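Justification of computing resources. Each target in the renewal requires a structure prediction run like the one illustrated here; the chain below, 111 residues long, is used simply to show the kind of job we budget for.
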Amino acid sequence: RMEGRTDEAISQAKEAIKLDPELSSARLKYGSLLLIRGESDAGIAEYEAVLTKNPKNVDAHYLLAQALEKANDRKNAIREFNEFLQLASPQDARRNSAEQKLRDLGAVMTN
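Resulting structure tokens:
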């Protein structure tokens, strides 16, 4: 059962965060798992918590942008996709996807 595995992964991520609250990778994984479980507000909050500690975390910007887009928060999704594009290296494989998302969202490209 997928649901059971998600719950197990969530408790493991929570445990990792408890051991090291600064561990961005655990918080990002936890946020993604919450989104899978349909808890979009809680997942978005995890991504935002990572960005509060490290505003230049490229992964957090990308994941937050995707989550905001799914939550129909167009304005903030556009902001986060743009932020991602400004921080991501030219070789980052997610750049094309982010640029396409911005076009889909009808955004004016800032880069």
